Amino acid sequence: MIVSSSVFRAVRRAHGLMQVRGMQALAAVYTETGDPQSVLRVVRHSLPPLLDTQVMVQMLASPVNPSDLNQIEGTYPVRGTFNNINTSGTVLQACVGGNEGVGRVTQIGQNVHNVQVGDWVVPQRAGEFGTWCTRTIVDAQSVSVVPEEWRSGLSPLDIACLKVNPCTAYRLLRDFADLKKGDYVIQNGANSGVGRAVIQLAHSWGIRTINVVRDRPELHELQRELT
User: Fold this and answer.
1) Cβ distance 126 to 143 under 8 Å?
2) Which terminal Cβ of the chain has fewer Cβ within 10 Å, N or C?
């Protein structure tokens, strides 16, 4: 899927091309659903006070998934959460885009015990809070900690994509058949994010894969990459 350059520019800006000062943040937001190129914009806004059960998260990376764009269009089953956002004295009823990402906890409320400052976290569920921002304040129960040992050899860009494609691949391999070591599965779209995750998970479990992709000039190069 081709994502418009204007969306990418908005997300890049929201991830730090402008400096955040004090208790402010940048976010790619929309006040109504529609064409992402038309409704999405980047705003600087004031963060609310940190409550006892909340954490402040500095976002490290957030991808653009096709489902994010569908959510902005209003065609995705999971709807974004609209909140009051204070932008230089003007309060917007807006939703921050993005459902995936990884961030570092920079502050915690006094009643938070499941998260520590410095932890890397990802959203628990899609739609709870937007990830296309430089920082955000969220309920501590809405994030999952990424164990430090999992981060070895991985960059924020790797971990930012953890919640959708790998989880989908896991459900595909576990929920519909009792696959055993040595079994075969066949899939189309094998070079997609989900397809690549299926190949890796299946390999780790001893399951063999037959992978179908569309013909292309660089087919042999893709074949080497997927194997």
Assistant:
1) no
2) N
